[in-house]
Structure formats: C-alpha cells, structure tokens
Amino acid sequence: MHQMLKPASTCTDPDPENLRVLGAIRQIVVDNLLPADGRLPTERQLAAELGAGRRAVRRALTQLESEGLIWRKQGKGTFAGQPPDPTEALAAEIVAEVDPLSAMEARLCIEPALAELCAQRATAEDVARLRQLVERTHEAQEADSAELWDGALHRAIARIAGNRLMLTAFTLIDEVRMGEDWQMKRHRARTDARRELYDTQHARIVDAIDARDGAAAAQAMRDHLTALFNNLRESMSGGAG
C-alpha cells in the first residue's frame, strides 16, 4: 500500500464535540437519511436531535459544504449534494446520446486544465480540504462511498480553479456521467488494485497542486483520467479487472 498524504493540521478539529457532530451529520448525508428533496433539518433541529450546541452544528455544516457534500440557499435551507445548475436540463437531454467513453474523452480535455488552474489559485486552506477528500476516498469501504468522495475531490478541484465557463463544462460532463447505468459501469471497473492506483494518483494530483506546479498537476490529472479511461474501456469490453 502506498503512503497516504498526511492530513493537514487545519483538517483536524481538537474539540471532540465538534468532531462528534461533524461525523453524525456527515453520516446522515452519506447514507442519504433525508427526504426526497435532500433537505437537511434546520440547525436548531440538528442541535436538538444530536444534543449539541448550534455553534458545533454550524461548524459542521460549513465543513461539509467545503467538502462539496451539501449546499445552502438563503431562505430555503441546506441540501445534500450540489446546488442546481442550468446544465442539468441539458445533461438530461443529451445523456442518451453520449456513451461513457465519450464522457471520459471530454474529461481528458477539461480536467487537466482545471488542475493546472487549481495549482495556480489554491490557498493553503483549499489544499487542506483536498487532502482530506483524498483521505476520505481512500478510507471509503463501499463503492457508493468511494464514488461520492472521488466525485467530491474532482468537483473541489474544478471549483478552486475559478473559471466559470470551464466549471460549467465540467458540471455538464459530471451530470451526464452520474446516471445510474453509468455508475454501475464504473463500479464494475473499480477493482481493489485499481482503487489503490487511483488513491496514489489522487495524492500525486494534490501534491502537485500543493507545490503550485501547474504543469505537474495537469499531467498527474491526465495520467489519472487515462487510467480511468483504459480501465472503463476494458471493463465494458468484458476484460478481466
């Protein structure tokens, strides 16, 4: 097993109460223990249900939002997942016309450039969050959890890159590839050996971003997506994992 990145100090809250509340709310989101609209209980309700203070709940929600697991809208509430994007309607229209390998080709065009921009613009806090997402992906025990954390890492890199047009293109690709049938194809392509490789590649991407080396970040992302592309293609053709 490769040596994983050490979590940055800013990722570890020394207060056990804050960690308890963060873990409890994260579990609610990851296990999808929510109504159909994905809305979380209010801060007051969460505090009452968890026997915690509002401040601990608020800190937890801020952390989960930075991880890309929830989003908040003033006057509406807090919701699991990503905020609605105009690309959703377009993705729904074209999903039947796009195969998974075409989506991977598009990712290879977009995401290395996003990783390069991310290396140029990431703050120390951004890097700490990316390192935490790498660790979460590595520690995930189930395929669905691994997929969730993996997606959160790639979305975080895209957001930190700070280019709205490129982020929209990324979001469109991400929406297309999140179909249930496509997720099943990706799960079949994820063997234990491949997951270990992906973990190593994620660590290299974040190391390059941390070093503010845009060219290395782009190449590390390209290497990662090429491995995903080849493994997905092999899985879809019936090859052994």
Automatic annotation (TrEMBL):
Gene3D superfamilies: GntR ligand-binding domain-like, Winged helix-like DNA-binding domain superfamily/Winged helix DNA-binding domain. SMART domains: FCD, HTH_GNTR. GO terms for molecular function: DNA binding; DNA-binding transcription factor activity. Residues 15-83 form the HTH gntR-type domain. Keywords: DNA-binding, Transcription, Transcription regulation. InterPro entries: GntR_C (IPR011711), TF_FadR/GntR_C (IPR008920), Tscrpt_reg_HTH_GntR (IPR000524), WH-like_DNA-bd_sf (IPR036388), WH_DNA-bd_sf (IPR036390). CDD domains: WHTH_GntR. This is Transcriptional regulator, GntR family. It comes from Lutimaribacter pacificus.
